[in-house]
């Protein structure tokens, strides 16, 4: 399988590694900044395309990976589907549900063949939590808590065009909530503050948010996000049910325990950020993409999953703005 990579930034390099690691080939790379594409192609192989049309016209390309800024995803997605390519697209699908729906209209049934980059579904511990829940380990789930805290805010330029913390960051957690609950949230309440950096407020965003959701059967879910966390990249999930709880804790750098005059049983630090924390999950999502293609099966996480997560994020934004609970249909 040969893949054209659109984008050559932070996450694109992770995908180049994942594509190669899964035994596929990088056919070529396109980036608005040619030098960036040259660096990634130099490191992982493939040619450098002058534009998207050239990448899509390459007859050796069977699949396209979209890893460009969010506001470019739907245009590239529509073009890639029209060119008859299989598509992997980074999250979120777009900055607005309306544009994502227009895209869905244009690509039609191909939407079910598009994989969205919700890499956390491929994390071993989170997947195990979901499996044990489905096996009935804690009986019926009553409450799900998802904690996601970044070590430090991304550059303000990135945040200004990211679509805001709910669409850029909590979008992963909205997806994990759906993935684990197995039931659609139908009520969303969110509150947001600027507690970390006033510059984040100046670009119209929040850096600290709490979301509370409820499903039709009454199961509750909290999502807690911060753009700053003094002790590293904090990623935890707890499912609480009638018979007990399942907790996915942060993996530590190693199992060393340190005892000092003023500290007992101090443990090693957390991952620094998403690149090291989810390295295995990023690799696993590409293995899954190719395995499903080969088996003629739909991807593990589709355009419709991406759309639903975006709808929840947009409901969260409305809730913050209007200071009320937003209702959604279960659909
Ligand atoms: N799944 C994850 O864990 C994860 C992590 C980070 C980013 N992302 C997503 O990946 C996307 C890219 O984020 P990033 O952090 O890699 O950003 P980035 O800024 O590091 O990289 C974006 C790259 O796209 C290039 N570019 C800009 N406009 C372009 C265009 N019109 N056509 C082609 N190339 C263009 C830029 O030159 C840059 O090299 C975003 O949608 C983001 O939400 C996902």
Automatic annotation (TrEMBL):
One of its GO terms (molecular function) is inositol 2-dehydrogenase (NAD+) activity. It comes from the Bacteria. Coiled coil: none annotated. Its EC number is 1.1.1.18, 1.1.1.369. Residues 126-247 form the GFO/IDH/MocA-like oxidoreductase domain. This is Myo-inositol 2-dehydrogenase/D-chiro-inositol 1-dehydrogenase. Keywords: Oxidoreductase. Belongs to the Gfo/Idh/MocA family. It comes from Aureimonas phyllosphaerae.
């Amino acid at each position: 399988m040969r893949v054209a990579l659109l984008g050559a930034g932070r996450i694109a390099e992770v995908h180049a590694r994942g594509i190669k690691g899964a035994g596929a080939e990088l056919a070529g790379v396109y980036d608005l900044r040619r030098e960036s594409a040259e660096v990634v192609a130099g490191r992982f192989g493939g040619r450098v395309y002058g534009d998207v049309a050239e990448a899509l016209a390459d007859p050796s390309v069977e699949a396209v990976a979209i890893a460009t800024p969010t506001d470019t995803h739907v245009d590239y997605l529509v073009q890639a589907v029209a060119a008859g390519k299989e598509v992997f697209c980074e999250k979120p699908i777009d900055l607005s549900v309306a544009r994502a729906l227009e895209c869905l209209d244009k690509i039609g049934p191909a939407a079910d063949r598009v994989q969205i980059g919700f890499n956390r579904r491929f994390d071993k511990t989170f997947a195990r939590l979901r499996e044990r829940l489905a096996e009935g380990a804690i009986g019926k789930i009553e409450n799900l808590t998802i904690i996601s805290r970044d070590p430090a805010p991304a550059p303000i330029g990135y945040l200004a065009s990211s679509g805001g913390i709910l669409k850029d960051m909590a979008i992963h957690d909205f997806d994990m909530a759906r993935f684990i609950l197995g039931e659609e949230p139908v009520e969303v309440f969110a509150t947001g503050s600027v507690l970390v950096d006033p510059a984040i407020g100046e670009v119209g965003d929040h850096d600290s948010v709490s979301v509370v959701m409820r499903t039709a059967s009454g199961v509750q879910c909290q999502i807690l996000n911060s753009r700053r966390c003094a002790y590293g990249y904090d990623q935890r999930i707890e499912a609480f049910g009638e018979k007990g709880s399942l907790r996915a804790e942060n993996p530590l750098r190693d199992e060393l325990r340190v005892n000092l005059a003023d500290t007992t049983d101090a443990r090693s630090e957390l991952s620094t950020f998403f690149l090291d924390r989810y390295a295995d999950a990023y690799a696993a999502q590409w293995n899954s993409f190719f395995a499903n293609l080969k088996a003629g099966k739909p991807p593990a996480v589709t355009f419709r999953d991406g759309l639903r997560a975006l709808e929840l994020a947009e409901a969260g934004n409305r809730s913050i703005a209007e200071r009320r609970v937003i209702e959604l249909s279960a659909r």
